[in-house]
Write a structure and sequence with these properties.
It is a single chain. The chain is of the alpha/beta class. The chain contains seven helices and five strands.
Length: 176
């Protein structure tokens, strides 16, 4: 890592990577990016369409390609990764090699409420599920992904954490 500071947020869908990432970027005066949006822009397809047309394997390949290209940039930024991104193609190793990874460890009940029935239309993984099924799906995802998320350099736990709290953690990490 050069003089630039690259921060990559990881965690379950609904953990607040995009929302918190925007807040953090504002505090740091860095640009904010969302990996899924970058993929959609590069390949001119929405994520659900990529899954439907090409399958998850192709999506994960493209995801890694866009992540690698982005992490090789020579500027500071905050990036919200997709929930599954750290779990495929050694992406967590790549993230930790090129950036400061931050795991947003939010209680499942809170995420389930955030993903409530009105909001799942943007998340194909949860569409058609009732609230209980959303919670079960989140538990299953956490079992599969927790190993990767826990490799993050910084872990923020709870429902409410602030950009200022993370900035103080980043300063501590950089100084050590």
């Amino acid at each position: 890592m050069g003089k630039e500071l690259k921060i990559v947020l990881v965690g379950l869908p609904g953990s607040g990577k995009s929302t918190f990432g925007r807040q953090l970027a504002t505090v740091l005066e860095f640009p904010f990016y969302d990996l899924d949006q970058l993929i959609e822009e590069r390949f001119q397809l929405k994520i659900p369409a990529i899954f439907t047309k090409y399958g998850e394997g192709k999506f994960r390949e493209w995801e890694t390609e866009v992540l690698q290209d982005f992490l090789n940039r020579n500027d500071s930024f905050v990036l919200a990764s997709g929930g599954g991104c750290p779990c495929f193609n050694d992406n967590m190793d790549l993230i930790n090699d090129k950036a400061v990874s931050v795991y947003l460890d939010v209680p499942l009940e809170e995420i389930s409420m955030r993903l409530g029935l009105a909001k799942v239309h943007n998340r194909p993984m949860f569409s058609g599920l009732d609230q209980g099924e959303i919670t079960l799906k989140l538990k299953s995802l956490l079992v599969d992904r927790d190993y990767f998320y826990r490799q993050a350099k910084i872990k923020l736990s709870g429902e409410d954490f602030s950009a200022e709290l993370l900035v103080s953690e980043l300063i501590r990490l950089i100084k050590s």
